[in-house]
Amino acid sequence: MQIVRTREELAAALRVAERPIGLVPTMGALHSGHAALIAAARAASGTVVVSIYVNPRQFASGTDVAAYPRDLDADAALARTAGADLIFAPDDATIYPPGETPPAIDPGPLAVRLEGAARPGHFAGVATVVTILFDLVTPDAAWFGEKDAQQLRVVEALAQRRGGPAIHRVPTVRDADGLALSSRNVRLTPSGRATALAIPRALQAATSAHASGATTAGEIRAAALAELRKGPALNLDYLDIAESATLAPIADEQPLATAVSGELLITIAAVVDGVRLIDACTLPVAN
Q: If pLDDT is split at 50, 70 and 90, which confidence band does 53 have?
């Protein structure tokens, strides 16, 4: 496996790379969820490129950027084991060259609600860095996790507008206790982690309510909220029920069949121990 840091090194490595090229964009602090992305790319690609870059344009403050964990040696070891061929680990000047104006990328209407409302500018930063990575790596396909459901849909729409690459979804990887893997989980205290487990339990409660015959979004919301309220209080930002493809919100009184794509997206965002956690699941509906 090769590690490159500059645009010139990346271009040289890609000139001799076997196609198709699969890209797994990351911000480092890799874990088993990232390994699942890399393994999925490995199964379908001639060359697997893993980008590791903490993008300042998707953070609210420089303090948050500085606090993000960085360990390239550990990341490289995991990526190598999972099947990566090439790591692209640029610095800020490589992604955003001084004197050049980065492209102004509109993340589109899917970025307006939820994290788009809670973190203004976040998805514009995501769309910008993803566009730059797509241009530099020229992948045939890229792999993203389903946990960050809104980001996934924003990237899918971005790729569709630009005519590629193909975007592949990889299911959320969870620890044995059910918590969705995230680089942020290491910042949770033991008691905070116990509190955070209400999030996957709430998604499971929503799934069970649906399986038991719930016919409105309100019934599903009530089941999830009841689970969230059982344990220590967490700082709930939102519990959202939306049409999966468009992210259009579904009101509590609406029949589930109003999800015209035939799928609901349930998303929970909450803060525990000062750590913002996001998790999601989809539910099929008949219409």
A: very high
- DSSP character string of 212-230: TT--BHHHHHHHHHHHHTT
pLDDT at 61: 62
C-beta of residue 269 within 8 angstroms of C-beta of residue 122: no
SS3 161: helix
Give the separation between CA 274 and CA 135, rounded to whole angstroms: 35
Alpha carbon distance 1, 187 (integer Å): 30
Cα angle at 267 between 204 and 265, to 5 degrees?
85
At residue 231, does pLDDT exceed 90? no
User: Which residue segments constitute the domains of the chain, with CATH numbers given?
Assistant: 2-170 (3.40.50.620), 183-282 (3.30.1300.10)
The residues, any chain, with a CB within 8 Å of residue 243's CB and separated by 6 or more, are: 249, 250, 258, 259, 260, 261, 263, 264, 265
169-222 pLDDT, tens per residue? 999 999 999 999 999 899 999 999 999 999 999 999 999 999 999 999 999 999
Residue 31, amino acid: H
Question: Which amino acid appears at position 268 of this protein?
Answer: I
Rounded to two decimals, what is the model's pTM? Answer: 0.95
pLDDT of 39 above 70: yes
Q: Please, what sign has the CA dihedral across residues 20, 153, 279, 234?
A: positive
**Which ranges in 96-197 belong to alpha helices (H)?**
115-118, 122-137, 149-162, 190-196
Which residues belong to the active site? 34
Which has the closest alpha carbon to 127: 147, 149, 111? Answer: 111
